[in-house]
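Q: Convert this sequence to structure tokens.
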Amino acid sequence: MKEVDKTTLPIVQMAKDNDEFRQVLWTGDNTQLVLMAIPEGGEIGGEVHEGHDQLLYFVEGSGEAKIGDTTVAVQPGDVSIVPSGAFHNFRNTGSAMLKLYTTYCPPEHAPGTEHETKKQADADE
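A:
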């Protein structure tokens, strides 16, 4: 999917419909909007973003968020806040895809980035 040029999107439905590990929807000067889908038993992978805050909005499935030293369950309707410099990882602990959308401030990925799987994303980074 090419980056969108609309200013209003049905983001929750778009996230529910997405089956790709990562899909960058929109990139501005200061913010980026990305869809993600984590398969059963999968994870985003532990990482730290220096200079980037991240918000993750969960819309389907269940999982576990580890941010710094804190680990909590996540479900639809939850938002996880990851400040710049904090170690974080998100795992799918449910029996279906964990679907979410996330914002990076400032942008983290190249505009238009698409990764069908985590393996593909890891190879690209």
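Residues 42 and 55 are 19 Å apart (CA to CA).
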